[in-house]
Structures
1.
Amino acid sequence: MQYCLAIDIGASSGRHIVGWREGSEIRTKEVYRFPNGVREMNGHLTWDICALVKEVKEGIEKAKEEFGEISSLSVDTWGVDYVLMKGDEELLPCYAYRDGRTEAVIPQVHERMGFSELYRRTGIQFQPFNTIYQLYADKLSGRLEGATDFMMIPEYLMYKLCGVKSHEYTDATTTGMVSALTGEYDREIVKTLGLPGHLFCKLDRPGKVIGEYEGIEVMLCATHDTGSAVEGIPFEENIPYISSGTWSLLGVKTEKPLTDRASEKANWSNEGGPGYNRYQKNIMGMWLINRLRDELSSGKPFPEIVEEAEKSRFEETVDANAPVFLSPESMKAAFDAVLGGKPESAGDYFRCAYKSLALSYKNAVSELERNTGRHYNEICIVGGGAKNRFLNELTEKVTGKKVTALPIEATALGNLKIQLEAYNVS
């Protein structure tokens, strides 16, 4: 039996999942799980990258103890964030995307190259935390002086295992600096912004073995977790998906990027997949619920939170994608600031959040159909949010689409699928 290991790390937790084939099916078992989260350091939000390395190695040991020989492993994480290097030395801190350090530099980037031109070149939606703005902030602060490399977080974690610095395509597309035409870093963007050209290397594709860790091959999957999640959806038909976690990523596979004016205006993104384009949109996702839970019902099980939301009769909604919800000190206060009526209970806040997410899905699906010129009858929801029956029912009701919820570890499945297919295991 050939066993592969998927190390799937999200903004709130990480998990190690071993996978193997039984006939045409991929079987899985979770062997390790650990918490993750941003930390405040000197007024900035950062990742404890050293702790992540430690947890990654600990989970590998657990996998070896339980399954013996592991053939390969790969790491996927959220996008846009990275680690700067000077040789083999990390230039810390590792900033988290919700940190506000890019706010002041965004206008300066757009003065050098307007967003419409950036979008035409890359097809990447505007988000204030896109890597392009983070790197420009690093340039202005002097952090890039002497930097020899930058690696997206999953590639950095694999470097710490095998000693090889790599640059994987699907995660690189989240930087907002990869050409939609060539699939490589856009040198004109790099030159115009005055960024060090040597940082932007040739991009590798999923399935490439880059090194070895204690006898285990280290292989690139689709290292952006949404890229792996879409690979893990067990549908042959190409229907819209919602990868539901801290963020909700709603999109569909397309043959090529759509960088037209309508897509730019609606702020849709074109991110890399293994052999296809992912035309998708970021929606704030379970971040809203999780932060409200921390403030209003800390530690309360999610089934009880859903029950409170179902019992509530509060019908107001908010724009779930409004900037006020990105990184507020108080999520409750953010809701209060934009609502006309004041919620009277925790259930009112949760109902408002769930209804607002469902409405965001409806609006996004309508834009998707207009921009692609196609009509869809069904939506597939994967990830942790797929377990939420109430949200699924709201989504089906407001969109008028059949909702198929698959509460599976789609990201880990996609990660494993790429590894197993690289071995051509039957």
2.
Amino acid sequence: MKKILFVINPVAGGKFVNKTNLVEQIKTNLAQGTDYEIKIWESLSQNEEIVAMIQSGNYSMVVAAGGDGTINFVAKSAMKIGIPIGIIPLGSGNGLARHLGIPLKTIEAIKNISNGKEISIDTGLINGNVFLCTAGAGFDALIGDLFSRSTGRGLFNYAKMTIQQLVSYAPNEYTVTFDGQTIKKKAFIIAFANVNQYGNNTYIAPQADLQDGYLDICIIKPFNALQFWGLGVRIFNKTITKSSLYEYYKTKKVELTFEGNDPVHFDGEPVKLGNKIDIEVRPGSLKVVVP
């Protein structure tokens, strides 16, 4: 077995995640005799260097220690040369790790790198950009965009911003075209899910299966203030599919169009890609080590 490369994002999860002893924990809890190298991803200026390392052919596995954004970055390069990724979840949401059942406790996640099994999972593309978890448009993309430009971090600030924006948010109208049908309607959220949740056990697609070769189109219709809390409860207890405000479909390829220049998101990263969005699944395209 060649070396394992660990790519550590030291700011993942903010101050709420303890990464002080991570290097020592890796050394102590990997299987004895494992050859490995650690790369701290401290700035965007290192992107090309880390990509080159992953694709060098010197490693049999690359481990992403960070959140879903870090995993996305690592996975894109690993997929190109067919090596598996491992995950040490250090993000604030950890949507992919939670779906896969990867331990959230750091020491247990490290042990899984040595003791786990390798599986192949689907990934998605949104206008050519790889996503592993979810992509979409609407309120969640707006909040993601605002939050990315905010100085306040953490779940409390995210929740505060969400409540503030709920008061004035006007849902856009979307046209969704897939499998020979077209749906046109206003929506609070349109999500394209590969996994069952955004992270933190917020289940936007409890029915999603990242090995079925499909993406789930999840539509949450506009709602009033009285319906908000009930909808929130359903998202957390996996019963959102029973709500009259929720629709979902399975597809391999879908086109989304809308008016204006609203942001979209993929794997938690808000971006502006125009108002014509093409999304598709890539079945079994990523190898991951899971318990």
3.
Amino acid sequence: MPEQVKVSTDENPYVLTGEAICEPPTTFTGKLKNLGPGFILSAAIVGSGELIATTTLGAEAGFVTFWVIMVSCLVKVTLQLEFGKHAIYSGETVMAAFNRLPGPRWGQANWTIWSWLFIQIFKLLQVGGIIGGVALTLHIAFSWLPVTAWTLISAVVAALLIFKGYYQFIEKFSILMISLFTLLTFASLFFLQYTGYAIQWDDIASGLQFSLPPAAVGVAIAAFGITGVGGDEIMYYNYWCLEKGYARFVGPMDDSPEWLQRAKGWIAVMYWDALLSMVVYTLVTAAFYLLGAAVLHERGHVPEGYDMVETLSYIYTETLGPWAKSMYLWGALIVLFSTLFAALASWTRIFSDAFGQLGWINFYNPAVRKKSIAILAWVFPFAWSLLYLFIKLPVLMILMGGFVTSILLLVVVFAAYHFRYRRLPEKLVPSRWYDICFWVSAVVIVAVGVYSVITVL
């Protein structure tokens, strides 16, 4: 058996047959070669969650809320594992799985689908802020075009990359972009220690005391929702696991020992994918937060409005020197565009799936699905662009998206509970330690989500 499985773009990853069955890799190297879905999520996370929301929280609160960021990154991965596991053994998309959850229905769709659709109204603002960040960065680097022009150009480029983009391209492009900016960020954090902004162990210790200043509550809730894997990224993970081929390699569920062995093997690969990508985005998130707390909080600068990109550049120029600004602009462009790119790839799939569950299209027909993805690949970027050009407050737009993501996590917890305790085959029941982690995650997320709802009301 080859150590790395190649997935043909001509195959339909959303329909399980016995023709694509493949034994899982047994060596650690073989498992590493079959990772990928989690790193697409990392690319989607780092722009809005890490570069903007995390750094903004550090700028406002200093080191004291460092624990919020760390808890946010670590506590959600169990839900991500549950969604990935469900995708692998059942082959169901998120919306198909949501449509089987208990509760009222309106038309052909379950209440969870309608709730998700309502929340997406506010999520449009979040990605609108991202495309605004891309445009602002390009305008600073190339001021001969106005922000409006760069906003529309960014929309066109993103659409061109996605409307016929297959999984392999999306995976490789996402990994490349996140790798480049991660190296730059770690270099900045390293050289920070040789400046007047050097971080002391007492600073980090003060951020791990579970203190939350009242003035930082709103930003902290938004950062919790948007850093690490948010509710939407957990849902997106389903599609990337399916398109990677994990479910097709397992094959349709049956009672055979061979199916069980394949399911456990590919679920183990998915576990490595989710956990290693969690390590990556947790380290990057921590680095961004510490830079924001050490540099921006000390200087009294909080990213906002059209000055967002300029303000964020201080975390590099104050540590690496003025020469680093041009490198920062390229890095910021990479990380913001990676989020825009990965978000558009995910949005086109999940909305097409939702339209299928509503009875508007046949999502499982490859030709119909590709057409829907192609159309939405143009619709969404221009919708995001119009919102940004009208509101012109990228940080606020992104934080609003993060705030409602905390509420979306309540739906995600409900679905994950149903997957774990109502749908999971008995032979795939995890260890008690896994269940403990699952319930810790659920309790923390529900507490934050309920608090978010109370705050809104």
4.
Amino acid sequence: MTLVRNPFDAGGYSLAEMTQAINILPDLHTRLGQLGLFRFEGVSQRAVIIEQSEGVLSLLPSVPLGGPATVGTREGRSMRSFALPWIPHDDVILPADIQGQPALGAFDAADPLVEVMNRKLLLMRRKHAQTREYMEMNALRGIVKDGAGTTLYNYFTEFGLAQISVDFVLGTAGTNVQAKVREVLRAIEDNLLGEAMSSVHALVSREFFDKLIGHAKVEEAYKFYAATGAQPLREDMRRNFPFSGILFEEYSGAVTLSTKATERLVPTGEGIAFPLGTMDTFTTYGGPANLLETANTIGLPLYARQHLDDKGRWIDLMTEASILPVNKRPRLAIRLHTSN
């Protein structure tokens, strides 16, 4: 959506208009977003209560005020309340940003103020998208982190669950790699717990990928795949390799934290395997904006609003998101590593 009105007109853009604009601007296509792993679900509160029963995490439903409460048995269950992290990000449009651009209303010229606003909104959306990718990649591994890299919640610790980890021992030539893959597949199948899946995907670091395709018991299969499954002279063959039921993909994504430190989304020498085609395992919950007019409304992925300085000196652009990604079956995401 392109903003087409002059923001200096009376009232400028409403919260609804700005929010609609930023939510349909071109998105930064992060890898988990491309895979469609985490579905978004809006909630009306700024916190959620999650119940764990037999290894499955579920969100407790809301009920009308004064209505009957949901009842859970004590046996084998635990409940925790989690606040949705609030992620505000602001920018400002100054006269210098539009100085020297075509005058407002010039023939065949785009409104320079609108152009600047669209550009800034797109950049702000990309920052939120990168933050969401970072949070969802960590939630896939059972952890919630903020943009500073601080761990907010560890679902394994909160609910007394143990993460499944498979050591591929890729530094040993005699390792039966197919047996290791079967171990991962069976671990995922055993922990579906009523869930469905279509396939298994693994995002792995470049170090893990290189050791995998270079292993004595995998190398021939990789050469055959490179020769017949793709066009090696034209395609980057580092990207993925299907082997014994898992599609291994090299993923070197990294983010710059608010502390200016850089963190890789898949740790060095590791990987994470997870099912695709699930119905209700990977969910990102979104709460309403921290505004009076959005209180008790169903949350959206991202909110945006503007405020014109009383003396006309600048326009504040304000965005925010309140999101909490949850892997409801934490043991479905298998940590891959190699000890040598």
